[in-house]
Amino acid sequence: MMAAQRYDQPDAGGLLERLPAVRGRYAENVQMAPFTWFRVGGPAEVVFRPADPTDLAAFLVAKPDDVPVTVIGVTSNLLVRDGGIAGVVVRLGKEFAAIHFSARQVRVGAAMLDANVALAALRAGRGGLEFLSGIPGSIGGGLRMNAGAYGREFKDLLIEAEAVDPLGRLHRLVVDEMAMGYRCCGVAKNWIFVSGLLVAEPGDADDIERSMAEIRAAREASQPIRARTGGSTFANPAANPEGAKSWELIDAAGCRGLRLGGAMVSELHCNFLINTGTATAAELEALGEEVRRRVLETSGVDLRWEIRRIGIPIEQQEALR
Q1: CA geometry: angle at 33 spanning 216 and 94, to 5°?
Q2: How many other β-carbons are positioned within 10 Å of the β-carbon of residue 220?
Q3: Which residue of the set 138, 232, 266, 299 is catalytic?
């Protein structure tokens, strides 16, 4: 009997031969750095782009049980470690980016960019979705973390979401079943969101356009949006003695502009980490941990990572060779 394949390193080899036939596409040894906003990270062992939800479900049912699956979106809030990602990375493509407006609702595929939903809503004369123009991610990621900005978050407009579980079953979940809180969602981590149904009330196009312009101006003035970054690094604390936001705690701890190798805490907004051009994922993560240590030391607040960190540290991969 063949020994079980190890999946503690992404270059274990032979994985593609063990995967089921699909209508979508597989790709081996995909370098992740060019796709991530930080521009760092090692290779994915296999990337799978399903043709549609049925293809995704069939893959999940037929894949070997020991093969791990990691779902990624547009990687705007993601740090891929330097050792890469073992197993299969699922990335939803244009087949999951449809958008359909009805009377007072809009159904959106999980791969649709938040900003594009806001633009489509503007063209359709639908209000309330302007805040999506300030979130640099996709609908699937927004559902997974209850993303929000400028006073609104996903759960404020969400009616229901569709997700595929590891057994390939499609579930339709109303918002009250999803246990959505501040930057979190109670739906099992191994369920894959494929669409969401949102409230989309008729609105005045001029008011909608004005609101989006204000959001765009606010982002450009306060965030390093043209840098190699991953968005807000830490979630705002649920409770702390001063009621301070994460960036205020980081600033008070003396971390603005702090550097480690090619990684830096943004001077413009110190809850953003930046790859100045030569950073590794390890440097970015270590800098984030140093920020957490200093904030805990100065304020007693234990910051929670908002950026999702996935994959294998390079030193762990090298130790396994």
Answers
A1: 60
A2: 11
A3: 232
* H or E stretch covering 206: helix 205-222
User: Is 183 noted as a catalytic residue in this protein?
Assistant: yes
Which of 321, 287, 281, 294 is closest to 78 using CA atoms? Answer: 281
Q: Which tens digit of pLDDT belongs to each residue from 19-75?
A: 999 999 999 999 999 999 999 999 999 999 999 999 999 999 999 999 999 999 999
Burial tier of 239 (Cβ tally within 10 Å: 0-12, 13-18, 19+): exposed
User: Which of 50, 58, 310 is closest to 194 using CA atoms?
Assistant: 50
Q: What distance in Å separates the CA atoms of residue 276 and residue 127, rounded to the nearest whole number?
A: 38
Q: Which of the following is catalytic: 49, 183, 292, 294?
A: 183
What is the torsion angle, in degrees rounded to the nearest 10, for the CA atoms of residue 3, residue 189, residue 10 and residue 292?
Answer: -130
306 is annotated as an active-site residue: yes
